Amino acid sequence: MSVRALPPSLWADTAPPAPPTPPLAESRKADVLIVGGGFTGLSAALHLAEAGVQACVLEAHEPGWGASGRNGGQVNPSLKHDPDELVQLYGHARAEPLIDAVSRSADLVFDLIARHGIDCQPVRKGWIQAAYAQKDVAALHARAEQWAKRGVTTLQLDRAAVSARLGTEAFAGGWLDGRAGSIQPLAYTRGLVRAAQAAGAAVHGGTEVTALERRGTHWHASTSTGASVTAEQVLIATNGYTGALWPKLSSTVLAANSFIVATEPLKGAAADAILPGGETASTSQRLLLYFRKDAQGRLLMGGRGHFADPAGPADFAHLERSLELLFPQLGPLRYESRWAGRIAVTRDFMPHVHTPAPGVTVALGYNGRGIALATSMGKHVATRLVDAGADFPYPVTPIQPIPLHGLQRFYVAGGVAWYSLLDRLA
């Protein structure tokens, strides 16, 4: 497998230079081998190294090449399921530690940024989830109440309040989650690399793990460079770019594309009235749209795209049309960047943790909330690898392939069409 260049994106154009992560040149030993140089793997490496554990990260391309360097930059500490739903699913004893870990996940991101001086344009002004129809506002207000009961700063927004905060009259109401924020995600990824390296972890790009083999009490990882790593523990953290390294693992997630566009920096009163408080935003549709401004005043809009990777600007027309319908006061817009990346969608919309063999842990499936959840997952997995008896808030489940996963292209296309129809009917 050849090492592909970092895909073009706004983040690739504006992030600080990447730290050196040379390909693995010589075979070595480690306490923990981490496969995947995204948020999960780098957070785990950092926390393991800080605990005195020798961690080695192997990334097939460049750290941040996948979703960690291509996402919309929104730091949202939440799951698809509301707190009360989680209690119904798992019971109080199991659900409350999970809810607490999720709720604190944004704290962890911004604490790491502050502690390690990561230059990634952090803003923490909250996230607004908005509904187009009045009949959907009550559900969002109920969601706000559930989090407020657990000590989270929330606001219930009516039509006038959401209009003033978003700068559009398209929505009937919504809620604000005060925990959330935004970052430059590729810059954050590169900051995690530097922090992990400074703590003692090894990080190697351009090094695909081609095979894992159990040898006695250790795992032996063969790589594309010809060098190998031997480790007591292995963490597989490949998310939306999971391949065939572990049997049936890739068939537990749907690798759906998320497309994003970014305007040129906007100036003037009309632009200043859009998200003037610095919040991020998304819609409550099944096929949601998410949008925010970056540090230079660009307006970003993201949402689902077709299954195939984009071939040109025409593939982003639906996002540009949505942006211009939401904010007609801006007039014709010029777009500086268009890009896409794959998120890992699980069947139950929960992050998945598996332990399919002694010494092997798998963590993936963040359903579009990877910055906060994957950073948190990396920390909690690291704690579990250091101390097998430590409290672990996420459910650990067997690998269960999605039925007829080979048809995932049709799953995704059919799901997009069906949800789009339901959204239009609603």
Helix/strand structural class: alpha/beta
Helical percentage: 25-40%
Q: Give the number of helices.
A: 12
> What string, H for helix and E for strand, traces the elements in order?
HEHEEHHHEHEHEEHEEEEEHEEEHEEEHH
Choose one word for the global shape: globular
Q: Distance N terminus to C terminus?
A: 45 Å
| Rounded Rg | 21 Å
Detail the poorly predicted runs.
415-426
Helices and strands, with pairings:
Elements: H1 10-14, E1 28-35, H2 39-50, E2 55-58, E3 74-75, H3 83-90, H4 92-103, H5 105-116, E4 127-131, H6 137-148, E5 154-157, H7 159-166, E6 173-177, E7 181-182, H8 185-199, E8 202-204, E9 209-215, E10 218-223, E11 228-236, E12 253-263, H9 269-272, E13 280-283, E14 289-293, E15 299-304, H10 317-326, E16 335-346, E17 352-357, E18 360-364, H11 370-386, H12 408-425
Helix pairs in contact: 2-8, 2-11, 3-4, 5-11
Describe the structure.
The chain is an alpha/beta fold. The protein has helices spanning about 10-15, 40-50, 85-90, 90-105, 105-115, 135-150, 160-165, 185-200, 270, 315-325, 370-385, 410-425; strands at about 30-35, 55-60, 75, 125-130, 155, 175, 180, 200-205, 210-215, 220-225, 230-235, 255-265, 280-285, 290-295, 300-305, 335-345, 350-355, 360-365. The strands form three sheets. Strands 1, 2, 8, 9, 10, 11, 17 and 18 form an eight-stranded mixed sheet that branches. The chain has an eight-stranded mixed sheet with strand order 5-6-4-13-14-15-12-16, with helices on both faces. Helix 2 runs parallel beside helix 8, helix 2 (about 40-50) packs parallel to helix 11 (about 370-385) and helix 5 packs across helix 11.
